[in-house]
Amino acid sequence: EIVLTQSPGTMSLSPGERVTLSCRASQSLSRNYLAWYQQSPGQPPSLLMYGASSRATGIPDRFSGSGSGTDFTLTISALEPEDFAVYYCQQYDSSPYTFGQGTNLEIK
Amino acid sequence: EVQLVESGGGLIQPGGSLRLSCVASGLTFSSYWMHWARQVPGKGLVWVAQISDDGKVTNYADSVRGRFVISRDNAKDTMYLQMNGLRAEDTAVYYCVRGGRTVRGLLVGDYFDPWGQGTQVTVSS
Predict the structure, then answer these.
(1) ∠B2-B7-B13 over CA atoms, to 5°?
(2) Would the CB atoms of A56 and B59 count as touching at under 8 Å?
(3) C-alpha span between B62 and B31 (Å, rounded)
(4) C-alpha angle with apex A46: A68 to A82, nearest 5 degrees?
(5) How far apart are CA B71 and CA B92, in angstroms?
(6) What is the spatial distance between Cα A81 and Cα B9, in angstroms, rounded to a whole number?
(7) Are A13 and A32 in contact (CB under 8 A)?
(8) Exposure letters A39-49 (e unless 16+ CB within 10 A, then b)
């Protein structure tokens, strides 16, 4: 089973700031099948990125993803108020599909 | 717009059984692999089970294999999760999720999009 480790666990930031979230895999994702999800309180997760760097439909371009192998990042270029949420990475490269433990972006 | 609506959750005693349903609309249901995932409120996400577009292939997380059965009825645009031998640690919100498609015999795009609103399962005496 591939273990995904996200860092940091919580970040306190202000609107307008740039942030980079990290997701490290315990084994290389041979096809870079890495997705990012955003979850706001009381809501189901929603897809942000897939294939490590492709934005999902309707996702603004302030969100970008990068990485390959074992190290992946999600960058938000300038935080908007609606971006304060929990972010999860997920690998769908091999079964069982696994998620990271999440990074909570909170307003400073 | 794709919509996935789960139902069937509730309070159940340890050792009991529940069947969750997920009705899909706004998509050609029979073209997509589907998944169940779960989340303990305030905790992380866990993949539970996967089923192929034709229902012939299923995969399970180790924690539920042998107790849960995933199935689908493409004529009814509905997926199911039969949960037997329920344990306290199965308590969670269960989400229905659309997965990928089979293209030239290969599963592609098996990321989770969209997610249903979820149904709460509580296992307690």
Answers:
(1) 150
(2) no
(3) 26
(4) 100
(5) 20
(6) 33
(7) no
(8) beeeebbbbbb
Nearest CA in chain B to A101: B44
Q: Do B117 and A44 touch (CB under 8 A)?
A: yes
Residues of A in contact with B116 (CB under 8 A): 44
Backbone angles phi, psi at B59, to 5 degrees: -140, 150
Tell me the C-alpha distance between A37 and A90, whole Å: 8
**pLDDT (average), residues A74-78:** 98
User: Looking at chain B from residue 62 to 121, which residues have their Cβ under 8 Å from any Cβ of chain A?
Assistant: 62, 95, 109-118
Beta pairing, strands A63-76 & A19-29: antiparallel
Tell me if chain B has a CB within 8 Å of the CB of A56: yes
Per residue in B50-100, pLDDT tens?
999 999 999 999 999 999 999 999 999 999 999 999 999 999 999 999 999
Q: What six digits make up the tokens of A99?
A: 């998620």
Q: Identify the pLDDT of residue B40.
A: 95
pLDDT, chain A, mean = 97
Residue in the structure block whose two tokens are 């929990």: A86
- Distance of alpha carbon A48 from alpha carbon B118, whole angstroms: 19
**In contact, B4 and B27? CB cutoff 8 Å:** no
Q: Which residue has the higher pLDDT, B42 or A48?
A: A48
- Nearest-CA neighbor of B41 among A74, A39, A49, A2? A39
Only one residue has tokens 């050792």, namely B15
The mean of the pLDDT values for chain B is: 97
Token pair 């294939």 is found at A51
